[in-house]
Amino acid sequence: MAGSDPLAHQGLAIVVMGVSGCGKSTVAAMLAEALGCSFIEADDYHSQANKAKMSEGIPLSDADRAPWLESLRDAIRDRLDGGEDVAVSCSALQLRYRDVLRAADRGYEPGEYAACRVRFVCLRASAEVIAERMLRRSTEGKHFMPASLLRSQLDLLQIDATEGVTEFDATTARPGDIVRDAVALFREELASTVPS
Asked: What keywords are annotated for this sequence in UniProt (predicted)?
């Protein structure tokens, strides 16, 4: 159809990223609910070996991460290829990890971040706040990631300004406010129609 936007019916993946304990699973699940789309929890794609390694306080290597990121990329691609929006919770701490996920968009050219159908929202909080959250979750048996791995995650986290990653302070902003702002930010790119 002449004059129509070729991206109008393509899905958009919004990856809520950050270190363990920043609130990404909570925010991504709420975002999926607000958009009426599916939710992908990256932790569900880790192998048992990866989960065992992390629960013993051993950081993952890039070799450990590769099959995890590739299976997550494939799950995101399935949604995008179907014209669906999807909210994803994933640490995605480094550019090279985010680029694996960006490849879920079959049209993605490395470095062409603005045109990519996989977008990132990073939740930040102080190390003290995150350590307290991680310790609480760990003692309650709610997560396999011990607080002892926080330093390695904070050391890995890097975002290049050219990527266009939106950042929120997860210490002061409530999850509902982050979701509202993320929906407003991406509204024009979403396949779904979200009321204003």
From this structure: ATP-binding, Kinase, Nucleotide-binding, Transferase
Q: What is the largest CA-CA distance in the chain?
A: 59
Phi first, then psi, for residue 102 (nearest 5°) are: -60, -30
Retrieve residue 192's tokens.
């779904």
Q: Compute the average pLDDT of residues 168-178.
A: 90
**Helix/strand/coil (H, E, C) string of 45-110?**
HCCHHHHHHHHCCCCCCHHHHHHHHHHHHHHHHHHHHCCCCEEEECCCCCHHHHHHHHCCCCCCCC
Sheet bearing 13-17, strands edge to edge: 38-41, 86-89, 13-17, 118-124, 166-169
CA–CA distance, 99 with 69 (Å, rounded to integer): 10
Question: Per-domain residue ranges for the chain?
Answer: 13-186
How far from 128 is each of 82, 147, 151, 173, 193, CA to CA, in Å?
Answer: 41, 10, 11, 16, 38
- Do the strands 118-124 and 13-17 form a parallel or antiparallel pair, or are they unpaired? parallel
Amino acid, single-letter form, for residue 65: R
Question: Hey, CA dihedral for 126, 131, 102, 31, is it positive or negative?
Answer: negative
CATH number listed for the domain at residues 13-186? 3.40.50.300
Residues in the chain: 196
Element containing residue 22 per DSSP (H, E): none
List, for residues 50-96, the tens digit of each pLDDT value.
988 887 878 889 999 999 999 999 999 999 999 999 999 999 999 99
